[in-house]
Amino acid sequence: MSRQTGTPIENNREKIWLVDSKGLIVSSRMESLQQFKKPWAHDHEPVNNLLDAVKPTVLIGTSGVGKTFTHVVVEAMASFNEKPVILALSNPTTQSECTAEEAYTWSKGCAIFASGSPFDPVEYEGKIFVPGQANNAYIFPGFGLGVVISGAIRVHDEMLLAASQALAQQVTRENFDKGLIYPPFKNI
Questions:
Q1: pLDDT > 70: percent of the chain
Q2: Positive or negative: CA dihedral 103, 161, 37, 6
Q3: The pTM is what?
Q4: Backbone phi, psi, residue 27, to 5°
């Protein structure tokens, strides 16, 4: 975000609120927070319930704690977002924060969904939604080959950002219309 907007990272961190297994990442938890979480702590009262934490536009699940994106959470999120983004990335499927069917059904078909595990297409009110799979296989094989071929001895953030932007440019309007935020594997 900082590179795209030219704004300081601190300004963008103010817009990003994170929740871990113990609740909202807030300043009063600073002593117990892991080092990488500390820059994301906000001055706010502790909140343990995801629904009460914030009004998210994007949910990114990476904790490995299944079923944390509940019906109530997804329905509430859809009530204040035209296109809520739900990334249920934990593996295996049994640990996914919600299923594709749950995300589409609970959001009344307006969610943009991707997961860490593959899910079958979902039909909701006559429309077929194709869940995306957010997988490092989209970037790492080509990125690794590029590093080897170029003889690079260090990998910089800018290199990963360029790879991510190149991947994003491959998503077509047709992909978006199906609900995909990544191109199909066969196209990359």
A1: 100
A2: negative
A3: 0.85
A4: -60, -35
